[in-house]
Amino acid sequence: MNKKGFNWKSFFSKWYILIILALIYIPLIFIIFLSFNQGSPIKGNVNTKFGHWTDVNYLTLFYNTAFTHSLVASLIVASIVVPISVILAVMVCFGMWSNWKGYSKLVLGLSNISIAIPSVINGIALVILFSFTWIPMGFGYGYLTIIFAQISFATPYAIVFIYPKLQKFDMNLLLASQDLGYTRIQTFWKIIIPYLLPSIFLSSAIVFTQSFDDYVITSLVEGKVSVIAVNLYTMNKGIQVWAVTFGAIVMFITFAIIIIKTSITAGKETIKKKKDKKLVMQKMHTITMNKIKFNHNKHRKENRNA
Q1: CA separation for the pair 294, 301 (Å, rounded)
Q2: Which of 91, 119, 191, 195 has a beta carbon 3.0–4.6 Å from 216's, enabling a disulfide?
Q3: Residue 31 near residue 244 (C-beta atoms within 8 A)
Q4: Among the residues of the chain, which ranges form H helices?
Q5: What is the pLDDT along the chain (306 residues), one digit of tens a residue?
């Protein structure tokens, strides 16, 4: 009897996806557990040795001034950067769509270059720009320089997400709006903007993430303003408890959104399947009844002829 060894190839072919997902999510789950662990008494750092299970980290989170000030600053910046970047992207995409293809290719190429250039290079370029324009006017680094810098690197992301959707726009809708007497502005607000809403929401989420998470460029132009990304990246005395707790909250919110969205999508698909099944049953019933009626009429004719 030949004993076969363990088949690693078969094992990985069946379970490699779960292994990859485990490598991604186990550290995240570990952060959630750490957020409920009692912190180290030394400098408020995270305690990696699991001991007393507590919720004090969540109860005291918003009493931490370093966290609250940086969180408020990040939200202020993001709340300004997101609408401006998305509005600029929509305007640029509409201009690209309305003009010749060479123009759209040029703008898309420049947007991709801006995304591909390392953040350090973008940050240095912005610092040089501010040193020749903003600083000589007597102003310093702060909220305005952060907002301008983030708009400059976030807008190309919004363009890349919005323009492909606009390329698929049905020109018949545009012609129909013109037949109804819509002006160019009315067509833009009542036809094109509603059509672009899914891409606008998606690009807003991407821009918000880029703004909230940016460290390299923001750290070069922030001045005395402390945003949460810079605060997190500059922890040189160990990871603070508030950082892990905040990370856990972000993951809870993200998981909740994904679960809700998945549930809604699954519910819609279930309803659609039930409707489709009902329509199929109705059609089958109609076909069956028509066959019965046809056969009945056929027999009646045959009986009459007989």
Answers
A1: 11
A2: 119
A3: yes
A4: 8-35, 56-59, 65-98, 101-116, 119-132, 143-167, 171-179, 184-187, 193-213, 216-221, 228-233, 241-305
A5: 445 566 777 777 777 888 888 888 888 888 888 888 876 666 667 777 777 777 888 888 888 888 888 999 999 999 999 999 999 999 888 888 877 667 778 888 888 888 888 888 988 999 999 888 888 888 888 889 999 999 999 999 999 889 888 888 877 877 787 777 777 788 888 888 888 898 999 999 999 999 988 888 998 888 888 888 888 887 766 778 888 888 888 888 888 888 888 888 888 888 888 887 778 787 777 777 777 777 767 677 666 665
